[in-house]
């Protein structure tokens, strides 16, 4: 149950989870439980994950913004606001991003 409650917090603040993992790696290195090479590889991997998370967020915001701009342009030219088309487009993009992130 606790992990289910913590899941949204991890999704909303992925950097906090990466910070915890980085602190654990630092402690393992300080205790001599991992080598300098293992430490370097793990820090590099965590940095890649952090960068990937920001890229993913940037893509989501970019596509949502594009759908809003398209909906506004359609409203200006037709006089009708098709909110459902905007939501459908955003949901399709989110589904695509989610499936791409899992592969």
Quick description:
This protein has 103 residues and is an all-alpha fold. It contains 4 helices and no strands.
Number of strands: 0
Biggest β-sheet: count, sense, barrel?
none
Rg over C-alpha atoms, rounded to the nearest angstrom: 20 Å
Strand content: under 5%
Overall 3D form: rod-shaped
Element-by-element helix/strand order: HHHH
Q: What is the structural class?
A: mainly alpha
Provide mean pLDDT, rounded. Answer: 76
**Domains, number:** 1
How many helices does DSSP assign? 4
Low-confidence sequence ranges: none
Distance between the termini: 27 Å
| Portion in helices | over 70%
Domain Bacteriophage tail tape measure C-terminal: 42-95
Organism: Corallococcus aberystwythensis
Pfam families: Tape_meas_lam_C (PF09718)
Protein name: Bacteriophage tail tape measure C-terminal domain-containing protein
3D structure, described in words:
- It is a single chain.
- The protein is an all-alpha fold and 103 residues long.
- The protein has one domain.
- 88% of the residues lie in helices and 0% in strands.
- The chain has 4 helices and no strands.
- It has helices at residues 2-12, 14-30, 36-78, 83-102.
- Helix 1 packs across helix 2, helix 2 packs antiparallel against helix 3 (36-78) and helix 3 packs antiparallel against helix 4 (83-102).
- It is rod-shaped.
